[in-house]
Amino acid sequence: MHLIDLKVEADLLLKNKEIARKNREFFEKNGIKVVNIMGAIGSGKTTLIEGTVKALKNSLRIGAILGDVAGDSDFQRISKLGIKAVMINTGKECHLDANLIYQEVSKFHDVDLLLIENVGNLICPTDFYLGEDLRVVMVSVTEGEDVIEKHPEIFRIADLIIINKISLADAVGVNVDRMESCASRLSRARILRMDLKEKVGLEEWLEFIRGVLNVSGNSREG
Amino acid sequence: MHLIDLKVEADLLLKNKEIARKNREFFEKNGIKVVNIMGAIGSGKTTLIEGTVKALKNSLRIGAILGDVAGDSDFQRISKLGIKAVMINTGKECHLDANLIYQEVSKFHDVDLLLIENVGNLICPTDFYLGEDLRVVMVSVTEGEDVIEKHPEIFRIADLIIINKISLADAVGVNVDRMESCASRLSRARILRMDLKEKVGLEEWLEFIRGVLNVSGNSREG
């Protein structure tokens, strides 16, 4: 027995999809490429956005939307890099939804690239398409070797899977090859190993982002 | 605007509370002490249950309910220790609820201690009282120094807060004192530093569990 009414859930997702389409129209009309970055707390989403902004802000107009249940520490980190950034505190909600993004999109009408950091977990953001071009799912090796098999749905919808903090793999007793083969079984997404403190993977990531910017109209509907 | 109907949410939580009371009655009638262990993916919940079972299974009858979206790796780890264990796969749900527990409680009628591992995130389990005696919230330093301030609600309802994997604090650039003082501001819960690989904190945890077993009728309603 599910306590939540399935009809209510279906209505909710339908409504989300409608608003996501409006976001999508806005992004296409204004030539904005949008990347939705998902992952558990501590997987490295904010650090990845920081690295991206530092590397690309002189050649691109970048915006960021930072989603969290509470607090503004991510917003503080990103806005001091001198780009347009907005914090969305979801209160009790465990994901961003299209409507929350819709309230903010007009502020980003003049950017080339909008990076959205979703709320930190590998479950709830899965079903909520925001109107983005691409979906990135990050995991840190510190989440355990079995983190991917425990959350198959979010990896199935990913366009890029990042396995992060690989320099800590030995310290936490994790075999990165096994994580990667689990990801390959679930998804045809590209898989990228990363460790930003050790400068591993940033160049490949930036190349991926440049690819997103050069390929137009590659939208995916959730 | 919230897309989810507030009335639906209130009904859901009310129904959950009713079933949690039935669980509570069952636990009290059978002299079972129940600990609900919450925390993000990789915070160390399963390892803590493993350590507890190994240390106490000769003197206590212990059961475990392991919640995850998918997969049975935690169940495999715990059931091979020779205790009664049940896996609950929630599918798309980001938390256990009282009804999911209610379906399983009769299997545990003869245990002294039931350890429940909730689904891995710091958001959704907050509102769902299961009928437990005590709530434990675990965080790993790898989740970032600001993990506690980003998730105030779950720390407010905790009876014990565990800051885990402290031996990795330097490697991930986290100040454990700052995490602890943030926890103290939010909650009057006892705070325990832990690193099970380094044998830090296990004795204090076992002492806490022995306290739970010796104090009767200390139930908390969510």
Description:
2 copies of one chain form a homodimer. Chain A has helices at residues 6-29, 45-56, 73-79, 98-102, 147-150, 152-156, 176-186, 202-214, and strands at 33-39, 62-68, 84-89, 113-117, 134-140, 160-164, 190-193. Chain A is an alpha/beta fold and 222 residues long. Chain A has one domain: P-loop containing nucleotide triphosphate hydrolases (Rossmann fold, 3-Layer(aba) Sandwich). In chain A, helix 3 (73-79) links the parallel strand 2 and strand 3 (84-89). Chain A is globular, with a radius of gyration of 17 Å. The model of chain A is unreliable at 216-220 (pLDDT under 50).
Radius of gyration of chain A from CA coordinates? 17 Å
CATH topology of chain A: Rossmann fold
Instruction: Tell me the span between the first and last alpha carbons of chain A.
Output: 26 Å
Q: CATH class of chain A, anyone?
A: Alpha Beta
Roughly what percent helix of chain A?
25-40%
* Oligomer class: homodimer
Q: Name the poorly predicted regions of chain A.
A: 216-220
Number of domains of chain A: 1
Mean pLDDT of chain A: 93
CATH superfamily of chain A: P-loop containing nucleotide triphosphate hydrolases
Pairing-aware structural class of the strands and helices of chain A? Answer: alpha/beta
Q: Helix tally of chain A?
A: 8
